[in-house]
Amino acid sequence: MNFKLKFAKWDVIVISILTVISVILGLCIYLVPNDSGNSVAIYIQGKMEYSFSLDEDTTLTLYPGEYDKKTNTFPSLLGEMTIEIKDRRVRVEKEESPLHVCSKQGWVSIPNVPVTCAPNYVVVVIESATATNFDLVV
Amino acid sequence: MNKKTIFPILISCAFFLSSCGQAKKDFSSYKSETISYCNSYVDETTSGWNRVCNLNPVRTSTNKSVYPFDSDLIYASFPLQELDVETIYDIEDKMGGTFVSLHKEFDRHYDYLNEDQTKISNLKVLNESYGTNKAIHVDKDLYDLLKLSVDLGVFSNNRFNIAIGDLSSFWDEVIAYNNDQVSSRYYIDPLLEDEESLALKARWNQLKQELPTAEELKELLVFDDQNQTVTFKKYKNVERVSLTLGGIGKGYAVGKAAEKLISAKYDYGFISGASSSNIMLGNRKDNTPWTIGISSPFQMDFDMGGYLTLDGYSLISTSGDSAHMYYLPTTNNQYIIRHHIINPATGESMNEFRKVTLVSKTISSQIMDALSTIMMNTKEEDLKDTFSLIRSTYGDIEGIFQKNNEDETIGYYYVTKGLKDQFTVNEENTHLSEVFSYEF
Question: Could you tell me what percentage of chain A is helix, strand and coil, using 3-state DSSP and rounding each to the nearest 5?
Fold first, then answer.
């Protein structure tokens, strides 16, 4: 038996299209966020006021006073508050409150585990874009 | 390769690619013009679960827009692959219709109109009839729920009492006021001594004095089974007593909606009534157990304290202090939490447990709703006896009771024997360092 293999015009077209599809799928997979969380959200009085990338080391200082986001002043703050993002972790470094619960909590690197400063009405949380493992949270 | 083989391959690829985007489909485009009870959409925060029939506000007789049962977080959840347009419509109709009609019956604040423009004989109408000795005809749902509520009040020894309508409104206003005053740190509270707080205290004392006990309420509400009427008699010389179904109505509605969905074979999802009244309608499609996250009681309700695994049909009822509350600073650099679950016996919220989670497969949703309130109003020392009494009266039930130490650095979870192997503490939660099992 004698088989002859040769490229036809449509073979080239199909291979090209499949290559493009592979590249697109590869990009899709690359762009899907992983479970380690992407951003740090800072909620003040229940409203998300800031969002920072977890990949960039940042320090934010908030001040008490009349609401003015340009100067980072918020009425619910009892005193100056410093929030630090470093090495994909976040902490409230310094704050004024009776018990200092949130600054005592230290570094957090796990998504959806918040640092909560109740007397200041501030919540800092690493937010994961991917789903939680729970069917329902009560 | 020729054209006949190439085109099917290309079409398959196109379908494959388009299916990649399915996970983020927005069902709002399917919205029927005729159904306005609710909206269905993909919830990107839950894995594979999609909200079907997230309830919309309803219109009162004066065209005011209010959320059923005071919540914009009542919905059903189903896996995406089980949903098509017809299924979504059907679930919306069954669930939305049930919730909206029951809300109109159970609401004590607003009037609603029937299709023929007559006023619905709801709880507000019954409250307005207080002291007139007029028998009010009500629908069966309201009639049955009022009777049950009165019995639950007596059973609970006044830890659950639907006559606290005005007291509940009083605390709602105080909580809302104090939340608005965060910036000035100026609180009003019956515990404080400033002029406004003293006036508040006087009003609070009056409301407490005018509140009939659950036992007394049994004599004030006269039920006529034959005519399905309720007569709300006058209590002593008190000008006004207001009934509320706030601690039981949503549970009733969740139960009724669940019945409808299960009988229509939509039993592979769950209903969540603002997290406080929940029913897992049957087995998960893959027959693995349900995984329920139990949020931590600490402060602002973001933390995950642990998780619970449950098989098949299950009811989960929770009550806690994390929503609708304020921190009242006290003189010794501490604070107490004032929240919306009011103990009728004391007229104020208790700080015994931060959160109560009850689980059952047999007790009705409305009773579960009331029981979680009763347990929030129970002292730790009475926990065992109260729970035993609930079991012998209403059937099998398990529970998780969350507390913490004074500076909120340690969590204490009292877990009943039946849930011991199903509840797992979230060890990544930096707050929780101790868990106790309360065995009974």
Answer: 25, 35, 40
